[in-house]
């Protein structure tokens, strides 16, 4: 590859400044601040702070509420990721076979992408509303006394469903373009080599979708962990008490509702470590096994 | 190994376009048939219908004694080599070659043995564990061939398999494919737009144009006695000279220039076809050509000129030093093909 050389030594620095300042101001600075706060105990009004060492972390790991939130986060992430990837892949495989009206069909499937997470949350609230939500009504007619915000599992169910619904279009677009980038002749060669449609899918189509799938796996985990904040916030708003919440939402609840800035910072630091581990895993373990054409 | 029979095979697309007009021909067991024609002539569609990748709109297709119109491609006992190789990029060469066998519930040791046999035949032994992306174009082509021969099918189908290779490799692979097909004795249908490939490889050539079969015959037949003006102009490089002529009183003329043919049974306007190499410079010849350009080809020399205002080219040996200007020539015996001026069909 040819290396581009700058004649002026200030130009490259100038070009890097916007990116570096954004990362610095919006990521490194708050991250360092959080790391520092996690070792202090603040008074609720922010007038004084006391160094407490690892006591914020200790109380975090001894807290049953934090353990529950952690377990819920794992389940929630797995469910949202698996369901939204699985359903999107199924839709993409089917949409890929549609020839007539394909564009309209695809556009319709992508629409949901434009809905902002809090709006999706509000729509979920309406649909699942205990007294007049059509989906809640449907469940009631089937004998399921659905109560959003009252029953722990009902709330969790609604959260997962709304989050999955919101994420499917993105996955769908990527899977569909991934499918369409597989050469037609490779699929035809497979038709001659293997009579089973399912066999061809798992032997040829799926491995060739792996780079797309892997990319989506990472973005979906990130989405379920972090970007579902808006949905969760709308669904549990007002009564976070007995409701399920993810670790990210708990950072917000403890920090800004509970005014426990130190504990909340400690939680953020734990999340940062988690993301770091995930990134290492992504580059070290999985990427090596994926075939990129 | 099997005979292939096509009767009245037709392809009409849902939008009403007829890609292949009813076509019938037989391919005897072990024959190498080349479908040749310009792009869009329907030759690939024909091949894909035989493969089962395209539905047959009408007609019957038999491979061996079995009617296969509605048989799955995997069950037709065919193997196909694609233009861009169509190898599975995530599988090693070994798995690429063995994939078709694996799905046919063949014993693992047997697959190993067959893959090895094929790879030895194709000089691929050292590459069995590589991925297609680590191979050159010619090697990929061989893997595609390996995938076909390992299956030991009744019929080979080739869809322009050499058009992605450079000229030198193409000439070499041409010979290899032909030799391999001879050795295995498997019936083969080969699609190409390259008339040289068609001439050199085929036992029989099927020339297609605009969805219709123009001529079926051995390379020599097709070259020497083209059935239509299309075949005359498509086969051969340089192509056959085609000139507007006229027959009156049994004498054939181009413009006022007589082409020395007596007692022809036809009369009226005709199209005259003469191969460039059938025209010989001859001081005592009756025909005069005005040579305007000499093209050097090394082993040969191509003369471009006019006769009675119509373009004509002459193919001469390198020993024939000829300059531009008037040139007297004569024709080899039986050099002239006559075609109907309107339909383009061969006369006599």
Write the layout of secondary structure elements.
The complex is a heterodimer of chains A (293) and B (348).
Chain A: H1 10-37, E1 40-42, E2 49-51, H2 55-62, H3 64-97, H4 102-110, H5 117-128, H6 134-141, H7 152-180, H8 184-193, H9 197-227, H10 229-236, H11 247-257, H12 261-289
Antiparallel strand pairs in A: 1-2
Helix pairs in contact in A: 1-12, 2-12, 3-7, 3-9, 5-7, 5-10, 7-9, 7-10, 8-9, 11-12
Chain B: E1 4-12, E2 18-27, E3 32-36, H1 43-51, E4 58-63, E5 66-67, E6 78-81, H2 93-102, H3 108-121, H4 137-149, E7 155-159, H5 167-184, E8 187-192, H6 195-201, E9 204-209, E10 212-217, H7 219-224, H8 229-234, E11 241-248, E12 251-254, E13 257-258, E14 268-274, E15 279-281, E16 287-296, E17 300-307, E18 310-317, E19 325-331, E20 336-340
Parallel strand pairs in B: 3-8, 3-9, 6-7, 7-8
Antiparallel strand pairs in B: 1-2, 1-4, 4-5, 9-10, 11-12, 11-14, 12-13, 14-20, 15-19, 16-17, 16-19, 17-18
Helix pairs in contact in B: 2-3, 2-4
Summarize the model shown.
Chain A has 293 residues and is mostly helical. In chain A, 74% of the residues lie in helices and 2% in strands.
